[in-house]
Amino acid sequence: MLHDEVDYQDLGPDHFLNRNPDRARSRAIRQLNQLGYSVTLNPISPAA
Asked: What are phi and psi of 13, to 5 degrees?
């Protein structure tokens, strides 16, 4: 920002989720496992 003299642009709260969804999913599963939960993923079908 200082070097290029551009304004700051917030990437948004879900930037890293959209950037790499597989990594975000793995992280969430690992965190739930560490909390003592067993996780089964069932994809939801899109609304018709």
From this structure: -70, -25
